[in-house]
Amino acid sequence: MEYALGAAFFYAWSVTCARRSSTHHGPDLANLGRLVVAIVIVGLFVAFSGRHPFCAGWGWLILGGVLGLGVGDIALFHALPRIGVGLTMLLTQCLAAPFALILEYEALGHAPNGSQMLAAFVILVGVGVALGAPAEGDPADRRTGVWLGVLSALGQACGAVSTPMAAEACRQAGESMPDGFAQAFVRLLGGVPIVLLFLLWAARKEGLLAKVRRPYAFASAPWWMLMNGLAGPALGVACYQWALTRHPAALVLSVVALTPLIGLVMQWAVEGQRPSWRLWVGGAIAIAGVILLRRF
Description:
The protein is mostly helical.
């Protein structure tokens, strides 16, 4: 399961890098920068490996990119400076599971059973415990961050559900589904324009570089953006797809669900902020709920 552990590690490191990159560039420029890094790397790999990214269900993948990489990640980057890496990752990674359960029922008719509903309740209990952690700064700003984290989770759920929708469209058309790298490229095509348009709208008065920290840290700031793009959309997705080709999906997703706890350790190491016991306990409960949900 080394690839699944690699995916969890890279996803956690990506969000940690996102926090640092946002400090240097502002949330919107940091988000766009890492997606540009990802689309260039993944696009070149898809082109030179001879993959064909477009299929009968490409519209669903585009929509998944718009909602997941676009709306979801915009919310994530604006939640990070308000509530930190640990709570943001917990909300995004764990709440996405019950949201996806509901969306799959609405879109595909997969009704949740009693065990799945119980697992979703366990996730909500864990998130509730974590939300009781001591807060710093403005309470109103923290509430905004929590709602942004919930919106990010909803975007991630929409992105996840777009894949079975695309697979169903391919099945009906008698086509084979493209592999994970090709799917990632199409989703990036949907997400990048949304992030770019949001950045242009947000910067319409002050300018694109208004939130860039001055003096600019040329020795470190570009590297945080580069690592952010490499870790999440590139290496994280690669490890995730490799794991899925070798192991059952339920087992892979159970391991990847460890991402929030790994993120808490990274937050402690990089930023020197020791997470409260409520974050640790709430994260463990929520992750247990995700594992149960994926196994039922």
